[in-house]
Amino acid sequence: MKTSGQLPHEKQARPGSGAVLAFPDETDLGVYGPAESQSVVFGDVRPLLTSLLDGYNVCVMAYGQTGSGKSYTMLGPHSDDGPVLPLDPQSDLGIIPRAAEELFRLISENPSRSPKVEVSIVEVYNNDIFDLLAKDTVAAVSGVKREVMTAKDGRTEVALLASEAVGSASKLMELVRGGLQLRAKHPTLVHADSSRSHLIITVTLTTAACSDSTADQACSATLPREQTEAGRAGRSRRTSQGASAPQLVPRDPAGHAEQVQARLQLVDLAGSECIGVSGVTGSALRETACINRSLAALADVLGALSEHRSHIPYRNSRLTHLLQDCLGGDAKLLVILCISPSQRHLAQTLQGLGFGIRARQVQRGPARKRPPSSQMEGKRRPD
């Protein structure tokens, strides 16, 4: 996706299954084939985590037909035991566990910033939002239903959403594993463990206010890394291409810097399906209809954004309403396009490529920092 102030990308990857399409700029097209390792694919995500620590919102989203490798790319091979951290560089683990480890590695490089990391996990199933971290004994085998709300500043939030503070990559992935056990799944003729919902993992990073000269120096790290760390200049430059330079956080009358809050959203979308190929019936048929409608709504939003329409139909689906901030807001967005090499799935592949074309045509304003949501307390209203 080529956007003004966002990282332009479309990708896809699953060893033995397809190819990864990457658009680092307007002219170059990078393709990751079946033989490429997960660590190579993650190379395009790593710079975004530096941007997250700089105060930018970030979203990484995997799109494609069912069975094309989205969950593999985002999570790695299916395992009830979950990933073991720290990672082996040659591991098949996906973007989410790698991002967790990289995030805490970056935090450990500058502990004086005293960041707070919180995690929430939801799924959008049959056009309803379910909180997979809610501690509700009544909902022992599923999440708790929630609603999306819009704050007065236009930011979308999930009402009463449960979140947990984490202090390590292992703890973060422990929560992810627990959430995955509640995610809706159903076997089809295409995929024996087909995800029937859109999974959205949100990592919220809040940097503590500066209170002395030492913290002031730490807060200076919120400037673009290419200005403060020459050794990372090349990596950061590509990530921030087109984005406005982040500014130091405003000071209050006492001379303390405000807190900076940034969100990392990791999205494993449910796969688009051709009913005649997947062979679903009954409740699974309804799931397929809801999945395809929500993905069509996502494509409609991207189309409206690319054509600069006056009305963007975010509320045609709870998925697009929930992702409104990263789709049309100020987040850096990376779209991973998963494609099957099978001739049998040609129609779905062409549909996926069409989605990628729409995504790449979106032009948005520059990415920018946001204050923590706690500063907006009392200003929210029901949507």
TrEMBL record:
Cellular location(s): Cytoplasm, Cytoskeleton, Microtubule organizing center, Centrosome
UniProt domain Kinesin motor: residue ranges: 1-362
Subunit structure, interactors included: Homotetramer.
Name of the featured protein: Kinesin-like protein
Principal location: cytoplasm
SMART domains (alphabetical): KISc
Residues that bind ATP: G64, Q65, T66, G67, S68, G69, K70, S71
Signal peptide positions on this chain: none
Region: Disordered, residue numbers: 1-20, 216-255, 361-383
CC per GO annotation: centrosome; microtubule
Superkingdom, taxonomy of origin: Eukaryota
Keywords recorded for this protein, A-Z: ATP-binding, Cytoplasm, Cytoskeleton, Microtubule, Motor protein, Nucleotide-binding
Family per record: Belongs to the TRAFAC class myosin-kinesin ATPase superfamily. Kinesin family.
Pfam families: Kinesin (PF00225)
Function: Minus-end microtubule-dependent motor protein. Acts as a negative regulator of centrosome separation required to prevent premature centrosome separation during interphase. Required to maintain a centered nucleus to ensure that the spindle is stably oriented at the onset of mitosis. May also act as a negative regulator of amino acid starvation-induced autophagy.
Keyword Cytoplasm: yes
Annotated InterPro entries: Kinesin-like_fam (IPR027640), Kinesin_motor_CS (IPR019821), Kinesin_motor_dom (IPR001752), Kinesin_motor_dom_sf (IPR036961), P-loop_NTPase (IPR027417)
GO biological process: establishment of spindle orientation; microtubule-based movement; negative regulation of autophagy; negative regulation of mitotic centrosome separation; nucleus localization
GO terms of molecular function: ATP binding; microtubule binding; microtubule motor activity
Record lineage: Eukaryota, Metazoa, Chordata, Craniata, Vertebrata
Gene name for this UniProt entry: KIF25
